[in-house]
User: Fold these one by one.
Assistant:
Number 1:
Amino acid sequence: MPFKRPAPLPSQSESQSSSSANLLSGSSKRPRLSPPPGKALPNVKLFIVQAKLNTSAISELFGLAEQHAKRLCNKPEDADVIVTAIGMRRRLERHIPWELAKHKAVVTPQWLRDSVKNGSSLPYDNYIAIQDLQDTIVQNCPECNCKPCACSPSSTSSYASSSLRHSQESLASATSATSPPTAIPAYLLPPSPPLETDITKLDYTSRYACQRASPLVCPNQALVHELDIIRQSRALEGEVRSALSYARAVSALKAYPHKITSMKQVEKLPYIGTKITGLVEEFIDGGHINEAETIRSSVRFQALSLFSSIYGIGPTTAQRLYDLGLRSLDELEVYYGVDSKTQTSIDSGIVEVEKESKRRHAKDEGDEGLGDTWIKIALGLREDLAIKIPRDEVEEMGRVVMRELDQLEHGCVSTIVGGYRRGKPESSDVDMVFTHPDASKIKGLCKRVVQRLHEGGMVSHVMHLSGFHAHNPLRTTHWDSLEKSLTVFILPPSSTFYRGTRRRLDLIFSPPELYWTAVVGWSGSIMFQRDLRQWAKDKHGMKFDSSGITRRYDSKVFFPKTEKEVFDLFELEWIDPTLRNADA
Ligand code: TTP
Ligand code: MG
């Protein structure tokens, strides 16, 4: 889990409610809904709880309420229906007194969206925001005369998006209940509803991962895991070319949409050469690959993997440590003079390391050299840093950082990128890309927010990477000139999601015109990015990295205004982040 570096999202609770509405509705009985001509909710007085909603969701819901409801109320007591993304009673009570909530219909935002699409109020029972209110909501149903509710699940519908879709919206600094919505320019907000991927236009036989749909878990995941062990071993031994060949094969298999049971199926796939064909065949026959088994049980592989799980330790350092006779992390601690029990060497306050990031990604480029400082920090914190971060905590971290940032500079937007954005249920770290509509506000903001988080006890360690300078189109290496900080973060104990675990949090600040390029670059996965760069170069003579897109022959720089425009610029079909999992 590298110490490395970034969409967000309204709430888990909203997502959950939406998903359950989906389950209940049953697709076969889904009525056709079409946008209504007049007001959809002429008798409904609505109140919207802004907490846990991002700016785009707030403006969308306010728009729907203003256009379709009898009234959008300023006070919950004046409303019949309360729309909220909050899913827990305790949290709701911070905004609405429980006694009041019991006399209202408290529903998820999806109820409003679906009712508007339906042209009239839908029954509440599939959109209950707080389960404790289930009984009272049915009684409080003002529109559909259900006392008791006559609406059966089969008569309801759901346009609920998946939880992932909800979670991919950008965070804007007006996410806190206290801040008013900010006028964020539409181009900095994700499209609502999110764009759909047209799988039929993608091609799993393409040589470029950016033309293939790669789900998080594919039908051949076990095979992919076996091959990835061999890839890891090659990478740890410094056999870069061989490791890349395996990474490419894995990436191609990741996009193959059927379970592989015969070699005929893989004939058309790219990057499956003679050696890998043999391994696939072995897997089809026996369900495993001998070489992968041998690697797994090798002491050397185990030690090298263990060492390189510490951020800052790459293959070369791992091999050197192994050659010194070290085998365990305890031995590494002794070697580096770290005491993880007392953490004395690392808790001395904020550790700042300035570093020009010559290489953007240590993992990708096989670079190390972040110095012993980070190795010591990562070793000292290894127990915490080894624990994966569930999605709800990732989202909370996003909200907390945005709240603090809002105090420094109102009007910022951000997207949680990396594995979270691709739908991973748990992440090794949290990566966030930020911007502000006013480019002049960005410079120095990264350091300021990190300082503030440190003063608030949330950031204990930080390494600032790279100065903030303009994208240099003549650079030949892929480095990213964005201002960023790699930090160790812990949620404040007052947070609902506080688990007392320190987390890796990477903050990347981009000028507004580079925001979507940075979001694409940092959303991953690694092979998806690699092939996007390759595609840009091969097919368009362009250089792409997360800090800029440049045409090589005349150095013209491009500034896509939306994430989709990045794809359009390269004449690629849109691929949702959840289908960009082109690595194992
Ligand atoms: P990571 O945070 O290393 O990876 P991740 O977020 O995909 O997965 P997790 O944190 O859960 O392990 O990197 C964030 C993104 O940065 C990654 O998705 C794509 C990009 N990246 C590269 O393009 N090349 C690299 O070598 C690395 C490390 C990241
Ligand atoms: Mg990550």
Note: Residues 391-408 form the longest helix (18 residues).
Number 2:
Amino acid sequence: MTARIEPGQAIGVLGGGQLGAMFASAARRLGYRTVVWDPDPDAPALRQADLPVAAAFSDASAFERFSESIKAATYEWENVPFSVGVELEHRIPVRPAPGILRTLQNRIDQKRFLGERNIPVVPFHALHSPDELIIPDDIGYPALCKTATSGYDGKGQWRLNGPADAERLRDLFRHQDTQGRPRDGWVIERFLAFEKELSVLVVRGADGETRTYPVADNVHEGGILRISRVPAAIESRTAEQAQALARSVVETLNGVGVFCIEVFLMPDGRLFINEVAPRPHNSGHYTLDACTVSQFEQQVRALCGLPLGEVRLLSPAVMLNLLGDELTRVTAGEGLERLLGTPGTKLRIYGKTTIRPRRKMGHVTFLAEKTETAWEAALALRSFLANSRSGISRPRE
Ligand code: ADP
Ligand code: MG
């Protein structure tokens, strides 16, 4: 086992979005100094850092500054360059290990890795060139095509309802190819009529100890997370199966850190892994307000070799994301007073300076004695947002 990194020392995070900011604030609470590296000078976590590094990930002097000033590093999302992780690993511990980052940051590699180890993934077909874009019979329509790399929040995905859609997408990809766009391929999946989308957070220490949070069930709109509810509205047997499956993923990866496993629950009770993230997750934000130890504090603990924290739920919780201009709308007029004055309601604002459609700007967590009460409150806020919508930019679904 590697030596413990003591409070007072500095730790680093690659990526400076809201996840990096919440990591930095959890680290600071435990007495660590933080170094955040992000190419965007406006990234919110840079303002939380003791030492902000605002530079491209390819910047060699930024690499020196970052690696020289910290004892260990992690990342806030999987689209940071794998090569930076490998370079860092020559000098300091990087958790989860860059080899895991490489496997998970490509959907083809991720699904193959898990599938070959008998972990049930959504059935898929790997594509390496636009000419291969046909929908095999065992996938069928409706299908979903996803870029193998760099997709998030439903970006880089196309739904195909029939052969004409496949033809159009083939033309689009061929056109992009003539413009010299680099390619890592795509996956084609069946568009599944799942009963519920679940997610499970697993924390694993360097000694192999794992802790598994309660299961969340999630509502997405247009490929982007809208609502997470904990505990999930599923049978306890199903929840236990989902937790066991999630644990088996992290053990198979031999991961150290926080992982989120997204799972589809089918009407016949089968579970399929949708995707695995080697980091805290939007659907785990409830842990900030509804658990004794948040997913971000667990990330700090696993990184520094501290004892893992408990994963107990202190209260049912339902989280609603505030996207695009919704944060402004929800806090306009009397809105802020109303939200801040409602018992059991926690508002978090990420501090992003630019509003873009569907960008995650903040979230609200509703805590209540009964899950249904928190759920109703979240639905009421969602309808308020739908009714006060200024433009016509409705999401995909
Ligand atoms: P991202 O990296 O953008 O989160 P995901 O693969 O998780 O990509 O897809 C985003 C969302 O799109 C999922 O949470 C789910 O709601 C929907 N989705 C993804 N794959 C499928 C599928 N095969 N069938 C049905 N819905 C899907
Ligand atoms: Mg996802």
Note: The longest strand covers residues 196-204.
Number 3:
Amino acid sequence: MTLKEAINEHADTLVRATAAGGFIRCVAAVTTNTAAEAARRHQTTHTVSAALGRTLTGALLLGAGQKEFDRLTVRIEGDGPVGSITVESNKFGQVRGYAREPRADELLNGDGSYLLNEQGKFSVRSIIGEGMLHVSYESGFDIGLHREPYRGSVPLQTGELGEDFAYYLAKSEQIPSAVSLGVLVRARESGETFVEAAGGVMVQVMPGADERVVAAIESSIGKNLSTTNLIREGARPVDLLRAALSDIQFEVLEERVVGFACTCSYERAASLISSIDAVELEAMLREDKGASLTCHFCNETYRIDEPTLAEMVEKNRSVVCE
Ligand code: ZN
């Protein structure tokens, strides 16, 4: 899909820009489809849809601020009912992720009610609790380099995630940053989750930036920026930047398509199952008449049918005999 087609079809996009002579770097993304796809695939309850959507968006923003990496992993680990959230993105703007307890709201309140925060939004911190934000960047796979990944971890500050990403950037990557992440979740009459809008903005201040510019950005990106309201009204990433930077002029460097995508496939699932030893495979064949494997990241289930599994047993058995 070209960028133009993507925009016409309301696909998710991300924009990278600079301002103040390169001293300000900014990224904005509209991720409504990405967050909705994750919620649909994992059948998440409302607050988990918001938490997962924010983490997916945060990973896309972080990745866009990096020059070279193959895989970026963001892991939120808290003591709340959602357990953990794991998200991976790559330099092509593809992202995938899951929550350990996709229906954490039900664990929090047995009566099916939801905790709302001061702004009347689903309280993401109530399902995440206290814990850590871990980030790692891996690079060099495709040219056979097995470099140690770059890793950074910070304690969660609020558990609402936007501020936690900002804290990570300031502490671990030493870049003062403002990060706003939003997912507007609604409940259908059936009780099902519906992501109406999602997106985020990241503004980073490079060393030597004019203090007055920094102060102006801080005041405009603060409490006044309602990312999801703007997106619901049809805002694109450039409009989010305009709102975040108010009077400050910026120059767009790149706009690209982003979205939920997983690297799993039937072939990979089959290859994993075929590596199980023959005795265990035989038990699966006898008891389940096949085997199935579900991908954590996208919740897709791959079913290996009886004849294919029988073939695998034969192959593994002959390996043992040789
Ligand atoms: Zn998958």
Note: Residues 262, 264, 295, 297-298, 300 surround zinc ion (CB under 6 Å).
